[in-house]
Amino acid sequence: MAFSLGRMLAELKIYARGNVRSREGFFFTLVFPIILILLFGAIFSGGSSGPSTVYVQNLDGGQVSTAFVSALNSTTAVVLRPAPAGVNFSQYLSSHSSTDGIVIPQGFTTDFLSNHAVNVTVYGNPASTTSAVVFGITSEIVNSFNLHGSTGVIGVSQKTAVSSSYKYIDFLVPGLIGFAALTSPMFAITNLSSTYRRDKVFKLLSLTPLTKTEWLMSKIIWYIGTTTLSFILMSLVGIYVFGAHITLNWGIGVFLVLGPFFFVSLGMLVGTISNTPESAAVVGNLVTFPMMFLSGTFFPVQSMPMYLQAIAHVLPLYYVIDGLTQVMIYGNFGAAYFDMGLVLAISLVTFALAVKFFRWRED
Amino acid sequence: MSAIEVSGLKKKYGSLQAVDGISFSVKKGEVFSLLGPNGAGKTTTIEILEGLRDKDEGTASVLGLDPWKSGYDLHKQIGVIPQGFKFLDYPTPKEAVNYYATLFGTKVDADQMLKRVILDEAKNIWFQNLSGGQKQKLGMALSLVNDPQVVFLDEPTTGLDPQARRAVWEVIRKLKAEGRTVMLTTHYLEEAEVLADRVAIMNHGKIVAMGTTDEIESKYGSGQRMVVKAKDDLLRYLKENTKLEVDGDGSTVTVFLRDKNDAMVALGAIEESGAGWDDLTVRKDRLEDVFLRLVGETGDEEAGAR
Ligand SMILES: Nc1ncnc2c1ncn2[C@@H]1O[C@H](COP(=O)(O)OP(=O)(O)O)[C@@H](O)[C@H]1O
Ligand SMILES: [Mg+2]
What we know:
Chain A has helices at residues 5-21, 23-44, 63-73, 89-95, 108-113, 129-148, 168-198, 201-206, 212-242, 250-273, 277-294, 306-312, 316-330, 333-357, and strands spanning 52-58, 78-82, 101-104, 118-124, 154-160. By secondary structure, chain A is an alpha/beta fold.
């Protein structure tokens, strides 16, 4: 009964095809993650659709710089807020949870009038559309000033602003990825294990050379795929709609593999230890629902009361989401290694138990 | 060597003795049918032979293998359609056959295979949209992918319309013509009669009769019977005035004929009774008559249905 890649892939192919053809499969893989992030992002990010706030530090104060600021102000796409001249602008931005700002240097008016080259600096987050808009607008206004005066005097330089104060959306993205890694395999697999038993599909499969390990592996691979897809979709929405800060690195990949690996195994374990489809659903919900809400999916665990935090720390999903948060936001691999190790260990145990207790046939 | 060998087989579910010490053997190339009402223990028996269930007592061997212990090897040589065959919702028959072929590591021409089970017209329809008969035929195709020597069919035509039933029968006949051993369970008398070389009638976990249809009819039948269309007044008259063995259901009266003299007595008595009658026939017991006698009409109202 050696593991056969060919059989595993055949099983993966027929399962994938079923998911692509079924409406539920399509909905839960592609539409649901987007709805989730739009919904929670919109509710908790406090309406991001209005004009974005841009801080302007005018270190010059002369007549040209004043005209420049009012030109910026006349565009409706941005709302300008003055920043005091004496502060470190970069720090000022992050303390205001913003990444977008413009600095007009000292001597701007004099340089402009005497045809000396001078630069305005645009701060922004390269991953954010807002920053792109601010940069575009600034460049346009610079162009019009250059046309009216002597050409090519004003330049635009860009600086990356890294906000050290994180926004809700930054926590929401890893939380929702964890949510997707949990719910889609758990619900699908517990449901599958009971309907397959009812319809005797497992009996049928037991009559073929397909092994339980091959069957389970094919499901794990499929859900690694869908979770990765959810990750891509939710990250894109998070970044481009809500200006989330996401750092891409290999650590994310580790959790995109471990999460589904664990939850497919857990779903199968739940499905097999319960005798009837009804009890499988009940046990499945008992396992899934606390994790859905208490593991940091919708709110950072740190913001919850202490006793709920204590509960969170025994929920496996907490470590998936914490690990994702560590690598995606803080780039803190030290903490993430612990999460990876822990999730890997419980995944291996759960997988082994699922294969052991999962029976094709009865005695 | 027999293809299937069963001796003293028993299986209990809790306190229910589902299979109660049955023995039979099936020769290679034979079509053998377990015939019995619902709950007789047919599925339990066939699942034990397929290696899907463990037995409690007795011995069972298929192609010389213990089905439970050597299931993984046995399954490469047998084909199975479980009762109420269901598959995944979305594959088409063609995809399903190719999937099975990969699982068994064999090369199969899916189109050819589907033609063999008369399903080529539906080969690209999702399983969930196939008719009952088409689903059953896909079950046949899948069970044949590994070119099995023995094919197990558990109630292959239950719930099918007569036309679909006949199509499935045609495929079963092909299996026999190809020299495969077929074990078939059914609660339709006609199915066993038409398809099987030998039949075992099963009731309450026991085999109550076994042999070819002819053997069963002559061994368990009461021989000739006279059936006449008449009301119960004739039945009463015959009971009171003759020593004949009689039975009636309100619209027909049956006289079981032990010898030729019984026939003469019966005719005379019917004439003397003055009761109204019509449509008198004399015929041999059929499998149906034996079945109803051994299993009882209460067993399953569908059992005698044609
Ligand atoms: N898994 C099971 N657990 C408990 N009882 C069962 C089980 N399977 C079948 N039975 C019972 O065993 C008896 C025989 O069932 P079965 O073998 O399915 O008969 P058949 O196939 O002839 O209808 C029935 O009374 C049925 O209710
Ligand atoms: Mg049955």
